[in-house]
Amino acid sequence: MDLLANLALGFSVALTPTTLALAIAGCVLGTMIGALPGLGPSNGVAILIPLSFSFGLDATQALVLMTSVYYGAMYGGRISSILLNIPGDEPAMMTTLDGYPLAKQGRAGDALVLSGVASFVGALLATIGLMLLAPILARVAFLFGPAEYFALYLLAFCTLGGMGSNNQAKAAIAVCLGLGIAMIGVDSSTGMTRFTGGSLHLFDGVDFLVAIVGLFAVAEVFVFIESHGRDSAIGVTLEKIRIPVRDILATRITMLRATAIGFVAGLLPGAGASLGSFLAYMVEKSSAKDKSKFGKGDVRGIAAPEAGNNAAAGGALVPMLTLGVPGSGTTAVLLALLMTLNITPGPLLFTERPEVVWGLIASLLIANFVLLVLNVPMVKIFSRILQVPAAILLPGVTMVSFVGIYSLSGSHFDLLLMIGFGVLGYALRKLSIPAVPVILGILLGGHMEVSLRRAMVLSDGDWTYLFGSPIAIGLWIAAVLGFIAPLFLRSYLKAPAAHKDEA
Amino acid sequence: MRLFSKMAFAAVFSVGLAGQSIAAECIAPANPGGGWDFTCRSITKIMHDIGAVESPLQVTNMAGGGGGLAFTHVVNERNTDDALIVAASTATATRLAQNAYSGMTADQVRFLGAIGADPGVIVVAKDSPYKDLNDLLDAVIADPSKHAFAGGSAAGGYDHLKVLMALKRKGFTDIKKVKYIGVDGDADAITQTVGGFTAAMTGDISGVVGFIKSGDVRVLASFTDERIPGFEDIPTAKEQGIDVVAVNWRGLYTPKGASDASYRKWTDALRKVGASPEWKEAMMANGLAPFNKVGGDFQSYVDGVIGEVRAMSVELGVMK
Question: Are both B113 and B11 inside the same structural domain?
Answer without folding.
Answer: yes
